Each structure stands twice: as C-alpha cells, then as structure tokens.
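Final report, closing paragraph on structural work. Over the funding period we assembled a curated collection of sequence-structure pairs, and we close with a single example.
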Amino acid sequence: MIDKLANRFHHLNTLIRKRATGTPKELAERLGITERAWYKIRDELIHDLNVPLAYDPQRQTYYYTEAGQFVFGFCRSLTTSDMEELEGGGSIQVQPDRVAFGLSYALNW
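Its predicted structure, as stored:
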C-alpha cells in the first residue's frame, strides 16, 4: 500500500514537472482516483505541506510556482561522526542544526 502511494506521488510529480497533468478530472483519472479525492490531496499538498502548486486554466495543467524538492520517505538524523562512517547510496539533507540521511523518493519541482 505504501509503495502504491509513493508511486502515485512520483507519477503526480512527473506530470506536474512536465506540465502535463491535464484538467483536474483528467489528472484524477491518470492517478486512478476520483476528482473529489484529487481536490482533497491538492488542498493538503498546498495548505498542509506548503507545496507551491498552481493551476493554469489556459494550458490546462498544474505546475510548481517555485523550485524545490518533495521528499517522500524516512530520514534519520546522524551526527558528524556517523556521516564519516557512511558508505553506499541514499540522500543527504543538511539543515542549519542537523544532518539527516535517508532512503527516500526525492521529487524535484
């Protein structure tokens, strides 16, 4: 179930970045959900997660209004010494007061 949700968000992100979502009804169909469910998700993305998402009625597509990154996954906080011992893949996020490492879907917009 989580994998299906992650794939749906990845597909949504791809469509938005390509500016190929279509109308809200078409987007909902592409995602395999109802139009009402899409509007609920859209509102949560915008209001709860502060995703800079807008709709262009002339082009009939959603788009991101600014550059950024949508991350879907778990991030574990690590100390600097933990970072020195790391090997392999993953993603690293550096914030002013901590460093986080995790395997996640990094969805750029």
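The CA atoms of residues 7 and 105 lie 9 Å apart. Residues 96-109 have pLDDT under 50 and may be disordered. We thank the funder for supporting this effort.
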